[in-house]
Specification:
Layout lengths: L1 E4 L12 E3 L2 H9 L4 E3 L2 H30 L5 E6 L6 E6 L1 H11 L9 E2 L4 E3 L1 E9 L2 E11 L1
Parallel strand pairs: 4-9
Antiparallel strand pairs: 1-2, 1-3, 5-7, 6-8, 8-9
Length: about 150
């Protein structure tokens, strides 16, 4: 049975791939769970159009993000948290926290994969993180203060 994948399926393929699978697996798992449709000529043409639209949309998003990255250079993000007597945070600042801070403080939505942090920040002070999209990258300053 030939199917067109609507989503990435581990060990089978990626979205928009046309795969040959056993009929029971195709009907009872892939199609039933909305992961695939039967590969007819009409469905293949429809998926080709969707694939081209998806690629174009991804390209445009990437270009917009690259332009936004240019404005990030020398920006600063502020974090506050509870600390002990030695200035160590009870919690840490990690990639998820930086992603949320970029969204709230600088109004920029990025995936975690674009944020390159060597290790979580566990102390009060200043640091930096590299944000990279495509060929563009910017260094964002981080400032961690006690509450």
């Amino acid at each position: 049975m030939r199917v067109i994948l609507l989503k990435d399926v581990p060990k089978i393929g990626h979205k928009f791939d046309i795969k040959e699978v056993k009929p029971g697996y195709g009907q009872n798992f892939l199609i039933k769970n909305g992961l695939a449709i039967i590969a007819t000529k009409q469905n293949e043409q429809k998926m080709q159009k969707e694939m081209h639209a998806h690629i174009e949309e991804s390209r445009m998003k990437s270009e917009l993000l690259e332009k936004s990255i240019e404005g990030l250079e020398n920006s600063e993000l502020l974090f506050t948290g509870k600390v002990n007597e030695k200035g160590h945070l009870f919690d840490k600042v990690d990639v998820r926290d930086i992603k949320e801070a970029l969204k709230e403080q600088l109004h920029l939505e990025l995936d975690e994969k674009h944020i390159h942090l060597e290790s979580p920040i566990k102390e009060v002070g200043e640091g930096s993180v590299v944000v990279k999209v495509g060929d563009k990258k910017a260094t964002v300053k981080l400032k961690v203060e006690a509450e």
